Amino acid sequence: QPAAQGSRLNDPITGASTDMAFLVRNLAPSMRSVANASALCSRTSLGSAATLKIPQSNCSRGRQVQRFHTMPPILMGRRAAKIAGRKGKADAARAKVFGKIGKQIIAAAKAGGSSSAESNQQLADVLKKAKEANVPKDLIDRNLKRASDTSVGNFSELTYEAYGHGGVGVVIESLTDNNNRTNSDVRDVVKKAGGKMAESGSVMFQFTRQGALLVSNCTEEELFDVALEGGAEDVIALPKGGFKVVTEPANFGSVRDALLARQFEVDEENSGLTMAPVTLIETSDEDYEANVTMLERLLELDDVDCVFCNQEDGEDEDEE
Question: Disulfide check for 105: which of 32, 95, 143, 306 has CB 3.0–4.6 Å away?
């Protein structure tokens, strides 16, 4: 359509300005069809500039051919979506760890009667754990201040046991300042997800408490010697590379320090104390998805810090 006199087109990337009338006058003869229009543009890589090829005869002397930056739509394939999902879960898990340690700081400071690590050994142990988990200093300081606030209640540890779909056992750990609220929330999520609360001890025997350190950048022989000297129980080679060092809960810190002293690469975010299943239970695809949904909803509760289950991992090995 005819361009209004004086109208100009601005390139949003470079800020260059072009007279609209000039573009219409010189490009119209070449744009007789959609096919011709697409032939005018030669796109390079994602987000790069596309150059409009204007016939030389149509260009006035002294005019500069404009470059227009294009951005094709970004399509997320199955592998990209899976990686994004893993990253989201990793971020959520990290937030849960930070939240749990924050509550432990408050509980330790209140129990010891002091916000000083020098006079409160329980608090000193929690602050050491916070440092190992790379908890931000401002979060530590904020929770130390909350510990002296009389309006903040005392925290207590609660453990729940439940059954998921297909006979899967579930252990739910919580550190809460309101037992009634936590009881109600946990039972409500389990019931709505199709699970069933279990009696104390009926599920726990299917798990064992242990420390797990994920290590890379070393040989199995090097790692085995250092880990055992530090007090580890076992070293397990992982299918996708790297190793898992298994420890008693009490020896987790000393083994970790021994590995770091030898400059082994320790995955801090995915290492820590865990409830390892004694045996894994294989489930149908339908039960697997239902259990995953239940675990995710439990972790969405503010009072819930950790959820463990003995369901066999159904992750696709296909990475295409």
Answer: 143
Is the confidence at residue 278, as pLDDT, over 90? yes
What sign results for the dihedral spanned by CA atoms 83, 89, 92, 98? negative
Task: Please write the tens of the pLDDT for every residue from 200-247.
Answer: 999 999 999 999 999 988 899 999 999 999 999 999 999 888 999 999
pLDDT, tens digit, for every residue of 95-135?
777 888 888 888 888 888 888 888 888 888 888 878 877 88
Give residue 59's pLDDT: 46
CA distance 248 to 256: 12
Radius of gyration of the chain, Cα coordinates, nearest whole angstrom: 30
Per the DSSP assignment, residues forming a β-bridge with 9 are 18
CB distance 253 to 132 below 8 Å: yes
Cα atoms found within 13 Å of the Cα of residue 179, Cβ hemisphere only? 7
**Coil, strand or helix: which one is 222?**
helix
Q: Taking 50 as the threshold, does the pLDDT of residue 158 lie above it?
A: yes
| Chain centre to alpha carbon of residue 91 | 3
State if pTM tops 0.85: no
Residues 273, 249 contacting (CB under 8 angstroms): yes
The torsion of the CA quartet 14, 20, 25, 28, rounded to 10 degrees, works out to 70
- Residue 276 pLDDT class (50, 70, 90 cuts): very high
Instruction: Say what the alpha-carbon torsion angle 245, 251, 256, 258 is, to the nearest 10 degrees.
Output: -100
Q: Would strands 169-176 and 304-309 be described as parallel, antiparallel, or unpaired?
A: antiparallel
Q: Determine whether 238 is exposed, middle or buried from the number of CB atoms within 10 Å of its CB (0-12, 13-18, 19+).
A: exposed
Give the type of residue at 52.
Answer: L
Task: Give backbone dihedrals phi and psi of 215, rounded to 5 degrees, phi first.
Answer: -130, 145
Residue of 66, 64, 79, 128 lying closest to 101 (CA atoms): 128
Question: Which residues make Cβ contacts (< 8 Å) with residue 58, sequence separation at least 6?
Answer: 26, 27, 29, 30
Query: What are the residues facing 277 on neighbouring strands?
Result: 207
